[in-house]
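Dear colleagues,

As part of the handover before I leave the project, I'm documenting each prediction I ran so the next person doesn't have to rerun anything. This entry is a single chain, and its sequence is reproduced below.
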Amino acid sequence: MKLSRYLLLMFSILAIGIISACNSLDTENLELDAKHTPLPDYVLQSSDKVQETYLLAAKYPEALAASPCYCGCGMDDGHKSNLDCFVKGMGEGNAVTEWDPHGTA
């Protein structure tokens, strides 16, 4: 059991690292698709890095869903993965319907 959790954690870290490296060169063109609910003010008033992270969460939900929550909620908010720290609701076609403020902390 511990080995499988360790492997999942390592895979998640690797996936996030690869996604970050691939997108760090082209972040100026990173935009939110029209299918998603617009970013809320609490994200838009945050740093560029936080805004970029929310955009990446919308673009690559599968990668964040594969890594554990780290927002500090202690799972009290029902977070099952890192995706839950950024996205509260997701609809058809992985369209973000509601954002979560925990990713700004």
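The two ends are 31 Å apart (CA to CA). The chain has one domain: 2-25+35-104.

All the best with the project,
I.
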